[in-house]
Amino acid sequence: MNFINVVDYAGTFAFAISGIRLASAKQFDWFGAYVVGLVTAIGGGTLRDLLLNVTPFWMLQPSYLVITGLALVCTILFGKWIIRLNNTFFIFDTIGLGLFVVVGIEKSIEAGFPFWVTIVMGMITGSVGGIIRDILINEVPLIFRKDVYALACVLGGVVFYVCTLTGVADELTQVLSALSVIVMRILAVKYHLGLPALKSAESNENSK
Amino acid sequence: MNFINVVDYAGTFAFAISGIRLASAKQFDWFGAYVVGLVTAIGGGTLRDLLLNVTPFWMLQPSYLVITGLALVCTILFGKWIIRLNNTFFIFDTIGLGLFVVVGIEKSIEAGFPFWVTIVMGMITGSVGGIIRDILINEVPLIFRKDVYALACVLGGVVFYVCTLTGVADELTQVLSALSVIVMRILAVKYHLGLPALKSAESNENSK
Amino acid sequence: MNFINVVDYAGTFAFAISGIRLASAKQFDWFGAYVVGLVTAIGGGTLRDLLLNVTPFWMLQPSYLVITGLALVCTILFGKWIIRLNNTFFIFDTIGLGLFVVVGIEKSIEAGFPFWVTIVMGMITGSVGGIIRDILINEVPLIFRKDVYALACVLGGVVFYVCTLTGVADELTQVLSALSVIVMRILAVKYHLGLPALKSAESNENSK
What we know:
3 copies of one chain form a homotrimer.
Chain A: H1 2-24, H2 30-52, H3 63-84, H4 86-110, H5 115-136, H6 149-165, H7 170-190, H8 201-206
Helix pairs in contact in A: 1-2, 1-3, 1-4, 2-3, 2-5, 4-5, 4-6, 4-7, 5-6, 6-7
């Protein structure tokens, strides 16, 4: 429990930092940056909870708002320093992603949904925050064009399902599912793996 | 029932294709295109179900995810060919719109809302998917500027209400409502009918 | 009750006008402008009600749709004239904001949430409509960069909480909370007060 909390909070912090940094590149004021950071960190889980018809998780305890506040203060105080930690944040962000996916899957199982819904919910939990972030800063969402972010979430869901089917213990299932997300994303970024872009129908036509 | 299912699935397919094609013009990767296609197809019904406080329809059976997958595979395999089917897709899309509107109205009536809410829900079901699609590809939503898409949805709702008031049988009401959406949209596109643009307050001022 | 209704409707009207005017600058057609005006007016309260899991307020009575329709008709008929009323609308808009925040806070208290959630809900009620408006017209949301719109909502929430803690009567609490929002926003606009922009991490780096 304690360990999961630590990872959850670290992931929240990393997601918030990613939102705040992108907002700062658009000259948002402090409050705007805070909102973008918060939405990046809690947006996915909020949509998941709305779809599952349960109270959004961040309304049950103030930790997520506080952690985002800390992320803002850190960015204001240590802006330069934080850039050099790019790799550290990538690791946080990726571990957070793995955990967010597992949390999303478990909440959906508790709510009684079949496995394919839980996989979608895991993906929503992990990736929708970043999509809303990119909409707020008026950019085409990054995950639609770069690395295998969302696909890693799907893989995590499939691993979770296979583990459940084959009777793997609950704790091990969680760890394996999160690990598969983390490893797939790290490999994809390291080796520049990605899905092919969909060839534009129009450019196909022109190249005849 | 069977016939409605066929139309529903055809409409879903056409909506998904429209999302995938627009995503491909922005060089989204396969997964990004899938997400945009899916959101185009299910976004309106999802917002409707959240507002009505019922479980989103696509979480109850996997058909919609599968159909969007088929739409992606078709676009990857038959990209060129699909362009030539522009008119076919326009027909699918328009029939799907008519059906989506009727489904939205009926779900809202079942949930016990008055007629003006059901008209709004019919419109949300038919048009919000396309709005989210355009936000995701970072364009100003098309329906705010072109043809009478959303207005056709409102007409369908009014026809539905008038039929109900005058005691028309349920099945006939559904058919007439969907038909009015379909006919109005086809006429609007064929004869370039549309609402006037709102004159910019600023340009008014300048033209004094 | 009557007085609050008048202010609520005037605020809705002012919010709708702000959406319709921005839509007209982008050449939206009448219906598109109506939708943007409506979403500006009801978007914040709708998200609040979804998060609180209650029926969205505008689905319970048609006033908000009708008022937005009036706002559209006024803009079409009196476009030029309305520009000269800029200050009048700023006052409406600001009073509406104060009231929306108080309504948001009270609904969240009724739903049984702790004070920090009610502050967030007050802010969501007051500011999310404007954020969705800016997303629909494909601009970076204004409130992230200009004046202290959202921060004024937070101040209103804090005043509300302090009043409750110190046993101030309910009606007075509402008035003081709304007034603090209104006064803070007017002062901020009059004296060009605002939060500092977050310095871009990247530009920091470059300026070394």
